[in-house]
Design brief:
heterodimer; A: mainly alpha; 3 domains; two-stranded antiparallel ribbon; globular; B: about 200 residues; alpha+beta; Beta-Lactamase
Amino acid sequence: MKTLFIKSPLLWAWLLLTLLMTGFYFDRLSGDDKDVFLPGAATDGHYQIINNCSTCHGDGFEDQKVLQKSCVSCHGEELKAINDSHPKKKFLDPRNADRLAIIDATYCVTCHVEHQPGRTGEMGVTLPEDFCIYCHDDVAKNRKSHDGLEFDTCGSAGCHNYHDNKALYEDFLIKHKNDPVYNSEVDAAMQVLEKDLKAYFEKQDEKYLKVLKMEDQDSGIEQLNWKVFAQWEKSGHAASGVNCSECHTDNAVWSSRVDMESCENCHELEVIGFKRGKHGMSLLASNATISVSNSRLPKSEAKASSNKTNKNLSCTSCHSDHNFNVEYAAIDACLGCHEDEHSRNFKKTKHYASWLGVKNGSLKKEEGVTCATCHLPRKQVSENGVKRTLVQHNQNENLEPNEKMIRSVCMSCHGLQFSLESLMDENLITSNFNGMPTVKNKGFDMAVQREIDKRNEKK
Amino acid sequence: MKKNLSKLFVMTPVTVLIAASMVGCQKEEAEQSAGVSPKLMADAIHSVLEADRTVYTKKVITRLVKEEKVIKASEQFEDDKALPLPAQMFRFGSELVAEKDSGFSYSLQSLWPINKQNEPKTEAEKTGLKYIADNPGQNYYTEETLGGTNYYTAVYPDVAVAPPCVDCHNDHKDTPKTDFKIGDVMGGVVIRIPL
């Protein structure tokens, strides 16, 4: 019997296979590539953090509460900021028990199940598109305009979002019903970044009042690299008293390499935004940001294989070091990586023409539009008790659903209806808004008509 | 003024929580002896809610909006940089209490709601709201089962205490009733305590 056991080739093959498989799975479990364990590919929103299961699942795939905590830790703040139309707290009253039995709206994963590419729709929603019917089946009773409308059009017709309706609610539509296509005065307050940022830092420390010249540089490097010093001298850093040592010194030791933490010392809110955005979110799951070659973005062969695009993104990927040219960061840095049609078409648009107008002096700075104007918009924040302008480096705050952009970006220059209809027009998005919208937002007319009808009823 | 308002914003839910915890403490003590009835607890909670709601309507909305005309009250109070409506104040408080898992819940409902989500849904709510409308000054008490949990449910009349209550409801484009008068029962406060 014992001899038979040792001589059995099948048994040896089984043992070998078991050992090989154990080694393979152990290697994958401890490494960065955990695809083999995934029940399905991750959504575009989460693929960057997919190789660290604990980012969402905690330590042991415990229960929905752990997942919910993870969702809220990344998305909770934004949902509060937009006055979420369907927050968890609205559903906690026991009178909603019958609704929760059908669709438990107190958990994000009820509607957004990860690893389900076969049934994941827009915004990562895994429910059928007509889910609004569960609670609003009688909407036509009080709104005749909704009679006969299918429930899968609530969200797809540009009228409602489940979470963010701050540019879509009825009173807002009525308030802006007569907006022109172009506002006569653009929101200039959002375009005073450099001046505003300098003023902020000057309030923090008097040393930032000083304007530095090349001869003031304190690198201590004997063999001067004039090109680098010349770039620095022209930068906002030299103009704001920020010398070489401020970025290059770590615990009083000179370092030729400057990492993100050094930037964060002064630009904390910008770095927080970067880490929450598409460019930096993979830091949640690993010690590295994403590289272009690892991203899901459309990219040319040349870009996919170049050394530059294989590098992980950092502050200096867009703000090239030493000159920190914010104009380069606003357009050319983006187009250096983004190869989709929308991006490629930017330089054919009126938006880009406006930026050229700024460059040749025919337009005011606030009238120029760059990629960053729309995707990394400026907002007013309060930091250390001082109000200042911040470039929001978290694109997610302003990206999808695209109605998120209406109030923070589009309405700085355009009317509400024009903005809404432009964002509904897929062809217009592809052309990077090169033309006028060809689709109609019926919700606008419904809201205005309802207002008229109600007024007439009272007469 | 802003400071005082923010204090009031904080004080309303806090007052409710303190009242609830006091009742809770009383309940614990009482359980050791005779126990506190859910009715007593519901009545106590309601007296705090009613008082805060009346104070906000009279001392804030009526005074600043109607009499002194220094600020508006608006449903879109953030965009309009205005005061939240009394019904919104009440709802925000109830949502805060719900988030704290305080052992009870409350909501404001009506047979003539402006927001249709606030019309009665459960049988107890439908019966209770009709009862308090038909019997001014009376409360309605019952028990019901929701989502597998038994609740003691109390419904209290919500009465128009000041001109802004009736003016706003009568004029609102979504109101189903346009002839409210001061003193009318406009809706009901529903308090639930799990048994």
